[in-house]
Design goal:
- It is a single chain.
- By secondary structure, the protein is mainly alpha-helical.
- About 60% of the residues lie in helices and about 5% in strands.
- The protein has a two-stranded antiparallel sheet with strand order 1-2.
- The longest helix is centred in the C-terminal third of the chain and has 27 residues.
- The two termini are about 20 Å apart.
């Protein structure tokens, strides 16, 4: 078992001490994090930065994006829409590896985000804690999301990007996460 996979296994084991719903949510999230981490196994930084499809996506960029997205949503859980706001910068940059970034560094950052998320969820007084969503064209006006709904969204986002990563990896060198 690789270091990223064993770290996830350790977190999943820790989730066992939580109530059923929190444990289920965190174990499901960690399973999909594991799929994403597994997809980048044994890659060089050059391979992780390579685009293999028509999109801007590369494997290292997907790790960076998923980590940033999870961190942003956890800021929302704690402080609402204002806490979620970040520097808009170059939107597409979050999907690419920048000069000097390494796959190992991106994975370490993702691991830190995952550990912080797991600790936050374990310590929340109630998964019903909710905030209004930020104003954005992709959110229904006036919508409110609970911590539970945010976790479900993060699980879906992570699973979707793990699928993207699998396609990119297979295009890169034929390796697949499953099958």
């Amino acid at each position: 078992m690789s270091a990223p996979e064993s770290a996830g296994a350790a977190r999943s084991a820790g989730a066992a001490g939580l109530d059923g719903e929190r444990a289920d949510l965190l174990q499901t999230l960690d399973k999909h994090r594991g799929f994403l981490r597994y997809t980048v196994r044994d890659l060089t930084d050059e391979q992780a930065a390579r685009r293999t499809t028509a999109s801007e996506l590369c494997l290292g960029g997907l790790i960076k994006h998923v980590a940033g997205t999870e961190a942003g949503w956890m800021r929302f859980v704690v402080g609402g829409a204002d806490a979620m706001v970040s520097d808009p910068g170059d939107w597409e940059a979050q999907f690419r590896m920048a000069e000097g970034e390494t796959l190992a560094g991106l994975l370490a950052g993702y691991e830190q985000v995952a550990a912080a998320t797991d600790a936050l969820v374990a310590g929340l007084p109630d998964l019903d804690l909710a905030h209004p969503l930020p104003a954005a064209p992709w959110f229904e006006p006036g919508a409110v999301w609970s911590a539970r709904r945010v976790l479900l969204h993060i699980i879906a986002e992570t699973a979707q990007h793990a699928g993207h990563a699998d396609i990119i990896r297979e295009s890169l060198d034929g390796a697949r996460t499953m099958g």
